[in-house]
Design the sequence.
């Protein structure tokens, strides 16, 4: 059985949601501050977690920030901070 993963921005809930077949199984929560988006918490349901899911969530969220806003990214979430350190091609988002 093939599952469908997607990520959507849910600004009314201040989060990007990772959906598997339409069901939320992970979130990357954020706060908007002036010129910045602060990622505060990232979590994927441990029972549904597969390799790379959290990474897909964070990368898609950062791609959306890059394409649809001028905001600077602040990673107060340890997972996002770690992900950014491993993907230097996204470093520009932190110094906009």
Sequence:
């Amino acid at each position: 059985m093939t599952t469908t993963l997607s990520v959507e921005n849910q600004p009314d809930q201040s989060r990007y949601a990772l959906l598997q077949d339409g069901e939320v199984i992970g979130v990357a929560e954020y706060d908007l501050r002036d010129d910045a988006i602060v990622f505060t918490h990232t979590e994927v349901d441990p029972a549904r977690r597969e390799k790379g899911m959290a990474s897909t969530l964070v990368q898609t969220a950062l791609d959306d920030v890059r394409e649809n806003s001028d905001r600077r990214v602040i990673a107060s979430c340890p997972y996002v901070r770690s992900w950014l350190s491993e993907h230097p091609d996204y470093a520009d988002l932190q110094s906009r």
